[in-house]
Write a structure and sequence with these properties.
By secondary structure, the protein is α/β, with parallel strands linked by helices. It has 2 domains: 116 residues, NAD(P)-binding Rossmann-like Domain (Rossmann fold), CATH 3.40.50; 88 residues, Regulator of K+ conductance, C-terminal domain (Alpha-Beta Plaits, 2-Layer Sandwich), CATH 3.30.70. It has 9 helices and 11 strands. The strands form 2 sheets. It has a 6-stranded parallel β-sheet, with helices on both faces. A 5-stranded antiparallel β-sheet has the order 7-8-11-9-10. The model has no long low-confidence stretch (mean pLDDT 93). The site of adenosine-5'-triphosphate has 21 residues, from helix 1 and strand 2. InterPro entries: NAD(P)-bd_dom_sf (IPR036291), RCK_C (IPR006037), RCK_C_sf (IPR036721), RCK_N (IPR003148), Trk_Ktr_HKT_K-transport (IPR050721). Pfam families: TrkA_C, TrkA_N. GO terms for molecular function: monoatomic cation transmembrane transporter activity.
C-alpha cells in the first residue's frame, strides 16, 4: 500500500479518531490543534502533533500543508474557524479536502468553497443507530446517495434454509443482494440464485431508499 500524507486540523473526538486510525494504518499523520493539551495528548499517537491556529494562513504555510495528499478539517463548534481553515487549505491547492460540518448551512458553505467531501458524523451515526433500533437484525446502514443505500442485516428466521431464488428479494422489493457473510471471515461477494441462507449469515443488500424502507418494515415485523 502506498503511504499517504494526511493532515488533521482539530483534535476533538472526531479529528482525534481519524488521526490515530490513519497513523495505525501506517500513514504519515500531522495533527494540529490550537489547544496545547490536545497536542500533548496526541503526541505519541501520530507522526507529528503541532500546536497552531488553523485559521492562521502563515502558520499552515510554514507547516507545508500544501504538500499533504489529504487534509481533514475537524473543527466543529467554531464554525467560522472551520470555514476559514477550509478556505485557506483550498486556496493553497490541497488536492483532497474533507471537512466535518456542524449543520446544513455549514455544509452548504463548505460545498460552495469546493471542499471534496463534507461529513456529518453525528447525523450519520444517528441514522445508523436508528436503523438498528428498528430491528435488532439490522447491523448497518450506509447512505450511498440521497436515493440509494446499503443495508447489512442478520438473516431473519424466516430466511434461513431458503435459497436466494426462493426468497425472491429482488422481485418482491426491488433490492439486490450484493454479498453474504458467513462466520467471521467468509464472504461470498457474488451470491448465486441457488445459494442457501444459513443461520447467522449476514446479508448485504443495495437498493432505493423507498424499497429498503418497505423491506426494513417487513424485517421489523419478522423480528417482533
Ligand atoms: P468532536 O465532536 O469531534 O469532539 P467538536 O465538533 O465538538 O468535536 P470542537 O471540540 O469545537 O469540535 O473542535 C475540535 C478541536 O478543534 C478542539 O480540540 C479544538 O481545540 C480544535 N480547534 C478549534 N479551533 C481551532 C483552530 N482555529 N485551529 C486549530 N484547532 C482548533
Amino acid at each position: 500500500m502506498k503511504q499517504k500524507q494526511y493532515a488533521v486540523l482539530g483534535l476533538g473526538r472526531f479529528g482525534g479518531s481519524i488521526a490515530t486510525s490513519l497513523y495505525n494504518m501506517g500513514h504519515e499523520v500531522l495533527a494540529i490543534d490550537i489547544n496545547e493539551d490536545k497536542v500533548q495528548a496526541y503526541s505519541n499517537a501520530v507522526s507529528q502533533a503541532v500546536q497552531a491556529d488553523s485559521t492562521d494562513e502563515k502558520a499552515l504555510k510554514a507547516l507545508g500543508i500544501r504538500n499533504f495528499s489529504v487534509v481533514v478539517v475537524a473543527i466543529g463548534q467554531d464554525i467560522q474557524a472551520s470555514i476559514m481553515a477550509s478556505l485557506i487549505v483550498k486556496e493553497m491547492g490541497v488536492k483532497h479536502i474533507v471537512v466535518k460540518a456542524q449543520n446544513d448551512l455549514h455544509g452548504k458553505v463548505l460545498e460552495k468553497i469546493g471542499v471534496d467531501r463534507v461529513v456529518f458524523p453525528e447525523r450519520d451515526m444517528g441514522a445508523r443507530v436508528a436503523h438498528n433500533l428498528l430491528s435488532p437484525n439490522i447491523i448497518d446502514f450506509i447512505e450511498l446517495s440521497p436515493e440509494y443505500s446499503i443495508l447489512e442485516f442478520v438473516a431473519t428466521k424466516s430466511m434461513v434454509g431458503k435459497s436466494l431464488i426462493e426468497l425472491n428479494i429482488r422481485a418482491k422489493y426491488g433490492i439486490n443482494i450484493m454479498a453474504i457473510k458467513s462466520g467471521k471471515n467468509k464472504i461470498n461477494v457474488a451470491p448465486m440464485a441457488t445459494d442457501v441462507v444459513q443461520e447467522d449469515d449476514v446479508l448485504v443488500v443495495v437498493g432505493h431508499k423507498e424499497d429498503l424502507k418497505v423491506f426494513e418494515g417487513k424485517m421489523a415485523d419478522d423480528s417482533d
